[in-house]
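Annex B. Sample input.
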Amino acid sequence: MTNFLFDAQNIATPLMLVDLDDTLFQTHRRIVPQADFKMVTTDKQGQALAYMNPIQQHFVQWLLHSTHLIPVTARSAEALSRVHLPFQYGAVCSHGGTVLNADFSINLDWHAQMQHALAPYQARQQALIEVVQQQATHFGSIRTWVVEEQGLGLYVVAKQNTENDNPYAPNFLPELLNSLSPAVLDGFYFHLNGNNLALIPEPVSKANAARFLLQQFASQQRPILGFGDSLSDVEFLNLCHWWGMPNHSQLNRWVKHNLTQQYKQEGYYGDYQ
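Annex B, continued. Sample output.
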């Protein structure tokens, strides 16, 4: 009955949808690189930016040999090009605003969908920057910009300025975000990660873009696996048959906290309905 398990000719290579930053590697601002760490990303000046520890190195080796690896990332296409890993099966970039083909060219079908969906947001993104800059005067210094792909504004970034980009400086971005009126943020959602705040139009979604990319594999009945570290990854992870997260990640902390709260309140773990 189980002979099929040993039929190597019929093994379907899983697809692995994977977040990058803080999932497969960390920037030097979050860790102190050791002698056995490997540099895997560079900044725009070509300087080392992020590293893998030995465990991450082995994990990525296993992924590259055992799955077809598809990054699903907040990085722009340009920033993804500075990740020195051999991706070969397409990618989701810019929180889902951009889909790349296997040769890393822009997927024009998805780009056309984004052009249509984001047309009402183009002027609003510039207006949002002005409001955010004005509100920031009450809290501290920031720099803002619109992430674009082929001239299309995808989302707004506000980055807190700190001396020497110090990751331990007091973070005022949550206060800044809370000071923005609901009317200003209507139609946007946000992703807050350290000293970076992304204000993202609702049509831009990692899950929507990943769903679009997966359509080309739909007839193959391949296992779809996922890995991500943050709450913003859950939507695309739910497209997967199985998914996981790094220990000590934002998503892991949320799961542990809520399981603990459930046990305290109800005396058991899980859903018994």
